[in-house]
Amino acid sequence: MNGAMPTEPLYRADAYASECAARVLAAGPEGVVLDRSVFYPQAGGQPGDAGLLRWAGGEMPVANAVKGPGESVLHLPAAGAALPPMGAEVVAVLDWARRHRHMRMHTTLHLLCSLIPGAGVTGGQIGAERSRLDFDLPDPPAKEWLTERLNALIAADHPVGERWIEEAELDASPGLVRTLSVQPPRGAGRIRLIRIGPEAAPVDLQPCGGTHVRSTREIGQVAVTKLESKGRQNRRVYVALVGE
Length: 244
Fold this sequence. Notes:
The chain is α+β, with helices and mostly antiparallel strands. The protein has two domains: 8-94, Elongation Factor Tu (Ef-tu), domain 3 (Beta Barrel), CATH 2.40.30; 99-241, Threonyl-trna Synthetase, Chain A, domain 2 (Threonyl-tRNA Synthetase, Chain A, domain 2, 2-Layer Sandwich). 18% of the residues lie in helices and 37% in strands. It contains four helices and 15 strands. A six-stranded antiparallel barrel has the order 2-3-7-6-5-8. It has a four-stranded antiparallel sheet with strand order 9-10-15-14, covered by helices on one side. A hairpin with a 7-residue loop joins strand 12 and strand 13. The N and C termini lie far apart (40 Å).
């Protein structure tokens, strides 16, 4: 599958698109490449999407989506699943409930960053049930305070939007990058920023390639469930969705 053609990332233009028509560019045991897809490929701590590929006469459960060669997305088949024929027209269908939980969680982690300003993010992982961020700081705020402030930001119904900047603009504002171990991808000339809140005074603004909800109220209630020490100045904060 070397030299696979690029996959148009429909998830980037519309995180709420749950299915799309597409054509199979390549298919093998290492995965299926489509010319376009709503499946988010695993990256930046956000899991890849799961779901189905359907075509005339068959369907393939997708266990995960990952980045493939070049700008392609590999749709990984579940064990024993049949592969679609090369060139087939398929419908790619997300496990939307799972993806939407990831969107809610990812946006929550951005809000969590806003409550711990100045501390670099040393790691993180998004999950449908529980997520975490690791911060480079000696003493994080109490989990009760973080829970209260997160839910206040969510209830304020802040809009969530994006804008693109040139790489030179990011170089001039290095404080936008909160992650210490992972830097925004370079080479395309542009960097995507996710903004929570009004443009004039955002609650949070940082580079991100993941999927997010349109407004914070959509997240629902959350709770900071645990704080852990992972080294002399590495503190791990766990967050969970409360209820559905």
